[in-house]
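JOB MANIFEST
job_type = single_chain_structure
chain_count = 1
residues = 108
[input]
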Amino acid sequence: MGFGGPRGLGGFGGLGQIEVSADFTANVTSIAKADPDVQNLLASGYNITAIRPIIKTVIDGQGNVVMQATTAIVMLQNGTTGHATVLVDLTQGKVTKIVTTTRTVINK
């Protein structure tokens, strides 16, 4: 699974808007900021602009549903010239992927 997360009804399995707690945000931010590559991005002017959970839903043999945010996407932006997407694995407590995109506009 890549950055897109699970594809279900309405994105997050049909749940609609997901609200994250301050504790969840602090935990994800702490894990991301501990990564040396994320530290370099922040030092070069990137700012964290959004945190989005990826929720895993498991249905057991008796039909019980258990939902857990196992990963999170951290969005970073550097003005209008670049953005980065950071995938944080919450079960391992580490960053597993960073994708950066830089845009150059030449006005003539």
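[summary]
Strands lie at 47-59, 65-78, 82-89, 94-102.
The chain has one domain: 22-102.
exit_status = 0
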